[in-house]
Design brief:
Strands 14-13-12-11-7-10-9-8-15 form a nine-stranded mixed sheet, with helices on both faces. It is α/β, with parallel strands linked by helices and 489 residues long. The radius of gyration is 24 Å and the shape is globular. The protein is built from 14 helices and 15 strands. The two termini are 25 Å apart.
């Protein structure tokens, strides 16, 4: 299958933090891939901006090296690469000073095209950058800003951050990026739900037993130890990534596929979430790998905090108090140093109300699995008779729509989430971006959970590297007569 490429309009994109890790790993390779695909016009301009003392030639060389390291799978010839590098400029800019702003203002003003500013920097600098853009006349009604998470540390800081940005930009100009929403399967979830009569009549508490959302990582905290120990899995993953997946799986059909219509329905889900009870929470910290402690230290060693109470794993159970989902539990789980790298949403349907088959046929239920990574795709488990003359024995077989097999999508066709989201920014489409009230509602639900375990002085339970998490997580499910899906690649 050949995907249809629709070019975007000419644009100017300024990447604040243009020498940083995110720019090198994701933003610049993503732009290059879209350029090779013919989606980014040759007269677009990309401006790297950072405090690093570089000129444009030096920055182009850095971009060339980044593409060689992080864009090795991009099939483009040297001439195309040079054409992309010709679009790139660099300015040394001090977010809190005067250096570089006059030059940037002169570069951006009066071009009559889309202007976007990517804040790939610490949130502490968001307000400074927004204020400078307005002071130098670049925060006009047609400009757009892209801000990376974390969107605050709690509800109070999220409100303060939103208020700061709102002083200089309208909500329609602010693109809060969550790369999970740019994944192909996440968007396909909406297509499966709202484009097929098959599922929507069954998408409710009458037919769904429970829903599991798992985001498992094999990596540890790496070089993010200082940040991560102040955030933890709840703030780093649940409040944003898993919350967004929960909203998409549980929301009502929007009146139309329109940015605010979609986000209105997501907001209703967040505001309908029940508080989480203490015995519906399991927190953990990974232990060191026995015999390989130097390369795989424990969480506390990795963050250099021997008494840390920050979780590297969390599992919790919650309910949505509305007519569609009343009584159906939603189980969320995420952690580091787990058995496999896997992101999966699983909808487990109820058993048939009455089985006409003998007990030795077994009891089975339909399971819809939406895999975000790796091997993006959707699988529906269907019960059939086991082939052969041995009587009526039931087995489950998958109806598999793995994209690479069903649609002929290979590595060269794969579109990274950042590529899709950046082109959506240029088009002015906010559907896959979080709105300010949505962020605040998520923190309003998250804060009491964190405050609760801090007040109780709860200590995360240890778990082995390469496992599915602490035993408390398994026990939480077992008490409900359920079990987690195995974390598999």
């Amino acid at each position: 299958m050949v995907s249809r490429v629709i070019p975007v309009d000419p644009f100017d994109l300024v990447i604040f933090g243009g020498t940083g890790d995110l720019a090198r790993r994701k933003i610049l390779p993503g732009l290059f891939r879209r350029f090779c695909a013919g989606q980014v016009p040759s007269d677009a301009r990309i401006v790297g901006a950072a405090r690093t003392d570089l000129d444009s030639d030096g920055y182009r060389q850095m971009v060339r090296e980044a593409l060689a390291e992080f864009g090795r799978d991009i099939a483009c010839d040297e001439g195309t690469l040079n054409g992309f590098l010709d679009m790139i400029q660099y300015l040394a800019i001090d977010a809190r000073g005067e250096t570089g702003w006059a030059e940037l203002s002169e570069l951006m003003v009066g071009k009559g095209r889309v202007e976007a500013f990517y804040f790939s920097v610490s949130p502490a600098l968001f307000g400074d950058l927004a204020e400078r853009l307005q002071h130098w006349g670049m925060a006009d009604e047609d400009s757009r800003i892209v801000v990376e998470k974390p969107f605050g540390h709690d509800l109070a800081s999220a409100k303060e951050l939103n208020a700061t940005l709102a002083r200089y930009f309208d909500e329609k100009q602010i693109y809060r990026i969550d790369h999970y929403l740019g994944k192909e399967t996440v968007q396909n979830l909406m297509a499966v739900r709202f484009g097929n009569m098959l599922f929507e009549p069954l998408w409710n508490a009458q037919y769904v037993d429970h829903v599991q959302i798992t985001v498992a990582e094999t990596v540890g905290v790496g070089g993010r130890g200082e940040y991560y120990d102040k955030a933890g899995a709840m703030r780093d993953m649940v409040q944003n990534h898993l919350m967004q997946l929960l909203c998409l799986i549980a929301m009502e059909p929007p009146a139309r596929f329109d940015p605010d219509a979609v986000r209105d329905e997501k907001l209703k889900v967040i505001r309908s979430l029940d508080p989480v009870l203490p015995h519906h929470i399991a927190r953990g910290q990974y232990d060191a790998m026995p015999g390989n402690e130097a390369e795989m230290p424990s969480y506390r060693e990795a963050v250099d905090h021997p008494r840390s109470r920050t979780e590297s794993f969390i599992a919790l159970k919650t309910h949505i108090s509305n007519w569609r989902w009343a009584g159906t539990p939603f189980y969320l789980r995420t952690g580091k140093r787990m058995a496999a790298r896997s992101s999966e949403i699983t909808v487990i349907f109820k058993d048939t109300p009455h089985s006409i088959f003998a007990e030795d046929a077994g009891r089975h239920r339909n399971v819809l699995s939406i895999r975000l990574q790796p091997n993006e795709g959707i699988t529906l488990g269907v019960t059939i008779k086991e082939p052969g003359p041995g009587g009526m024995r039931l087995i489950d077989v998958p109806l598999d729509m793995t994209f690479a097999e069903a649609l002929g999508v290979d590595g060269s066709d794969h579109v990274d989430a950042y590529e899709r989201l950046i082109t959506d920014v240029i088009r002015g489409n906010q559907t896959l971006f979080m709105r300010g009230d949505e962020v605040e509602a998520a923190w309003a639900w998250t804060d009491p959970i964190i405050e609760g375990w801090e007040a109780r002085h709860d200590v995360p339970k240890p778990y082995d590297i390469g496992s599915d998490g602490p035993t408390d997580s398994t026990e939480m499910m077992r008490r409900d007569g359920r079990e987690w899906r195995k974390v598999t690649p």
